[in-house]
Amino acid sequence: MTTQTHQTTQTQRATGMREAFVHTLADALDRDDRVALVLAAISADRFTDQLRRHPNRVVDVGIREQAMIGVAAGLALTGHRTVVHSYAPFLVERPYEQIKLDLGHQGVGAILVSIGASHDDPATGRTHQAPADVTLLDALPGWTIHVPGHGDEVAPLLTAALATDDRVYLRLSTRQNTTPMPAAPGFTPLRHGGLGVVIAVGPVLDQVLAATEGLDVTVLYTNTIRPFDRTGLRAAVDSSAPAVVVVEPYLRDTSAAEVATTLRDLPHRQLNLGTRRDSELRAYGTPEQHDAVHGLDAAGIAVSVRDFLRVG
């Protein structure tokens, strides 16, 4: 791939999920006085009109991420449906205590919308990477977690979240699949086979489909990983000797306990793929190179799945 082609591809990807989020939320802010937005400098330039038109409901607190969550909780306590937006590490990791207390402990909801994912923009370094974000939020009760795999999945997921008062995390990425899938709870079956079940979460679907091409496996897709679709997994497995592979675009083993709980009455085997836990990657490179290091490219997934299923 030439540099020019690579840059064009990255630009096309970058206008997907994030732009869908901005467009959908801007429209909601103009139509619904209940909707509010809190920013910490990131993406403020994309909501200039809304900052001007709705100064009481669109707030940029500057580079103060803990305050961002506190302000969001305060707006929620006054009856607003608050959306909070930033890079994943600034949205989840840095203000984690405020998420736990100001939202969870007070029993109020908000929609956290992140960009950056695990390693979307390696040029910015480790400060802008958050492979543990889903794992951290999964440790707190009551969170719905969406991991869309295509820009067209963002609007329906965000619109549905705005209609509730729940605590929702919407994890956006510049990486996206070729084709959008239904934005609905639970697993969407894409292939059926007898050797095992492979679950693809969000933007790893294309790699999973390529990696399992020609294998006798069931492939399930989801853009809503919490709550975990236990009924859907039970329906998909071969109850005699289930083998399950979960491919997630964040920290490996994040959903291991969910699979184990779902199949706790059945002898089963499971393999969990995602970003590595054993070492930290201290390199820039490209997103595709990071995928390869973590075994999340199609070739790496194929090797892991074939070895796990003992397929030559």
Structural class: alpha/beta
Q: How are helices and strands ordered from N to C? A: HHEHEHEHHEHEHEEEHEEHEHEHH
Distance from first to last alpha carbon: 30 Å
**Count of helices?**
13
Number of strands: 12
Give me the CATH architecture of the largest domain, please.
3-Layer(aba) Sandwich
* CATH topology group of the largest domain: Rossmann fold
Radius of gyration: 19 Å
* Beta content: 15-25%
Q: What composes the largest sheet?
A: 7 strands, mixed
Protein name: Transketolase, C-terminal section
InterPro entries: PDH/Transketolase (IPR051157), THDP-binding (IPR029061), Transketo_C/PFOR_II (IPR009014), Transketolase-like_Pyr-bd (IPR005475)
EC number: 2.2.1.1
Keywords: Transferase
Primary descriptors:
Rossmann fold; 2 domains; seven-stranded mixed β-sheet; disordered N terminus; EC 2.2.1.1; Transketo_C/PFOR_II; 13 helices; 312 residues; THDP-binding; globular; five-stranded mixed β-sheet; 12 strands; alpha/beta
